[in-house]
Amino acid sequence: MRINPSRRDLWNLSPFEARGFEERVVELSDGSRVTVARMGQGRPLVMVAGLSGGWEWLAPLADRLARRRGLEVWVTSLRGDDSQAQGWLGGSSRRSMSDYAGDLATVLNRLGLERPTIFGVSFGGAVVLEYAVTWPERLRGLILQGTEARFTQPLGARLARGILERYPLPQDNPFVNQFLRLLFGKAVEAGPLWEFVVERCWSVEQAELVNRLAALEAFDVSDRLDRIDAPTLVLAGARDVIVPPSRQKLLAQAIDGADFAVIPDAGHIGFLTHPGPIAHRVADCLNDPVRFV
Fold first, then answer.
1. Which of 65, 113, 262, 285 is deepest in the core (most CB within 10 A)?
2. Any idea where the AB hydrolase-1 domain is (predicted)?
């Protein structure tokens, strides 16, 4: 996979502020803090990041949506993304998916976003689904990528959590980092994009990753999807081996009136590797005068 030279600066975190991202720190009810980045003017779209990586994961897609699609994009990190190193498995408490959804509700209240469209990816998609079934009246629209109502392969999550709980893993271990290639769904060349993915995946403390995997194992909103009445779009990477398109299609079929689309050649992190096609789908969805009013 090669990167267009004109886009290489997006894989370096330092230019984000120069490109127009405004960072804010939002305080939660218990005094914890999360970072939120804003860019653009127009209809608001809130984006929620995944298991690891913080808001920076979604910066290239947010940049495209704000600059080319005329949206005001808010990208929020999760509680724990900004935590300081506490040592191996130290300083992080267990939280459920409903806790993360409650954090999202607090962030939206603090920002004055009463009824936005929310786009969640991967673990962030699970957070957004929990939010959607808990506060359906506070949702204008719902967009999901790389997620499902109940993760149907808990063995993999339990295995990953077991390893992370028992062994402090070096971030520069080539063997461990090879597993990150599954996020692409295909071979990927060494270079700026690969380095960005590795850096973002290890940006969250190991203890926090353990807690999030535990929350994911317990997550299940499959019996509450009928509460969602907002327009919904489910996007799946054709090469997603983490949450295959077939399972994401089942999610779309379970939400009344939801649309489903496959992004060709994209893997689980299609939001990062294929921002153009995803931005196109999102913009088309938001510009539907009948559904998104």
1. 65
2. 44-275
For residue 112, tell me if it sits in a domain: yes
Per-residue confidence (pLDDT) for residue 183, from 0 to 100 = 78
- Which token pair is 145? 């990528």
Q: What's the Rg (C-alpha) of the chain?
A: 18
Full-model pTM = 0.85
192: Cβ–Cβ under 8 A, 6 or more apart, which residues?
3, 8, 11, 12
Domain of 42 in residue numbering reads as 5-286
Query: Is 238 in contact with 263 (CB distance < 8 Å)?
Result: yes
Q: Are 127 and 119 in contact (CB under 8 A)?
A: no
Instruction: Write the DSSP string, 231-283.
Output: -EEEEEETT-SSS-HHHHHHHHHHSTT-EEEEETT--TTHHHH-HHHHHHHHH
Digit-coded pLDDT (tens) for 217-231: 899 999 999 999 999
Beta bridge partners of 36: 24, 76
Tell which residue, 228, 235, 232, 203, has the closest CA to residue 77: 203
Q: What is the CATH number of the domain that holds 110?
A: 3.40.50.1820
Placement of tokens 């597993």 in the chain: 179
Please report whether residue 292 resides in a domain. Answer: no
Q: Give the model's pLDDT for residue 18.
A: 39
Cβ 116 vs Cβ 45: under 8 Å:
yes
Instruction: Decide if 71 is inside a domain.
Output: yes
Residue linked to tokens 């995946």: 201
More reliable by pLDDT, 251 or 14: 251
pLDDT of residue 81: 84
Mutual orientation of helices 97-111 and 123-134 as an angle, nearest 10°?
Answer: 80
Write the DSSP string, 97-118.
HHHHHHHHHHHHHHHT-SS-EE
pLDDT above 80 for 5: no
